[in-house]
Amino acid sequence: MRINEHPILSFKRGREITIYYKGRPIKAYEGETIAAALHAAGIKVLNYSRVRKRPRGLFCAIGKCSSCLMTVNGIPNVRTCITLAEDGMKIEENKPVLPKDIGYKENRKAEKVQADIIVIGGGPAGLMAAINAHDAGAKVVLIDENPMLGGQLVKQTHKFFGKREQFAGIRGIKIAEILEEEVRKRDINVYLETSAVGIFQNGNEKLVVGVRKEKELIEFHGRAVIVATGAMEKTVPFENNDLPGIYGAGAIQTLMNTYGIKPGGRALIVGAGNVGLILAYQLIQAGVEVKAIVEAMPRIGGYFVHAAKVRRLGVPILTRHTILKAEGKERVERAVIAEIDEKWQPIPGTKKEFEVDLIAIAVGLRPSVELLQQAGCQIKYVRELGGHIAIRDEWMETTVRGIFVAGDTAGIEEATTAMLEGKIAGIAAALRLGIADENWIGEIEKAQRDLEEFRSGPFGKHVVEGIKKLLEALQ
């Protein structure tokens, strides 16, 4: 199941180690997650639902759903998709009962970290926010619950569009390396494998409570917080849509492009937006046969250049089609699709079956706003921006003074716009705190012009409409 040859990527695996799944030794490598190692060994069933005992497998691979929860070294509810494998680890199906001794020290006080600005999220928006806030004179701390920086960039093998200064012509994986290098060479404190579980206000100070490696409590104290927690996969309702072998598109990219693990042999993709189209040729690069892409809309939603490339590779794109059900016992064995009419109802006699072991759901994302809701930021549903988002101004500041947003958390768009929003949020936070001088306003205005230009095409029209609704709500 491991990919040894790839036309673009080379996988530098760490030291070989051994983990134990139900007592069975499993080969793993330092630097890969538990779920990735289990997938490499052909283990896709990670858990069972508590009531109906239905099998559960990896779905999002970024720690935002509960499908991969397992018991690790006696500790239940461990998110195996973002927890690194360690030599000698003991992994079992999830048993939601705490052991008597889980390694906590009695009366241990939380570590306290002081900064001007706390950035939550190490993807393109968070990295740019941290870099620019630091350059504007702020003391910055950056936290991310994943074991590496880069967010969605670490799995993007395609080259970006846009201007040269916005990384045009560079693959996402390389952009992640460039931004991480920029962060590391600055005096920015980075905390990986650290989950932000709450944002609290104490006068002019913000307190972010974080948990590192599931058990170390850390208090981050600052005067401003930038929330760049990204988004999570949407799904679609169909029969047996919880079977192992059904993944969000990002999870498949994580397995293939980050850890070099083949997620299956034969795939069906649901959704013909840019993500679904790009995923098709990434799967083919990894040696996976793509049977078809199904799209409920009457036309594809992604760029023509991506669709043309997929068609040249022999993959049919079936518009006005939807998936009806997945079949299989413990995992996906086949998929049933059908053509739909103008009322979105299946047309009799149009069913088709595909023998697949992999179904990719690429129907879009929704912003991760849970921390913002908890912090008291005003939330509004804006369809054009992907769902519920925090109301914010042109400087990315929310209705709670001192809390900013950037990237997919502020509305679903491209990585390029995420980086520009991160730049605005980082500088704006430093300006609001009185750290940066007024010369930095010019940098914000330049980033705003770049955003306006990037959104001027047909794919940005709905985003502009959504932002207009946000600003109207703020007034």
From TrEMBL:
Residues 15-97 form the 2Fe-2S ferredoxin-type domain. Keywords: Oxidoreductase. CDD domains: fer2. One of its GO terms (molecular function) is sarcosine oxidase activity. It is an enzyme of class 1 (oxidoreductase). Pfam families: Fer2_4 (PF13510), Pyr_redox_2 (PF07992). Its EC number is 1.5.3.1. InterPro entries: 2Fe-2S-bd_N (IPR042204), 2Fe-2S_ferredoxin-like_sf (IPR036010), 2Fe-2S_ferredoxin-type (IPR001041), 2Fe2S_fd_BS (IPR006058), FAD/NAD-bd_sf (IPR036188), FAD/NAD-binding_dom (IPR023753), Metab_Enz_Cyan_OpOx_G3PDH (IPR051691). This is Sarcosine oxidase alpha subunit.
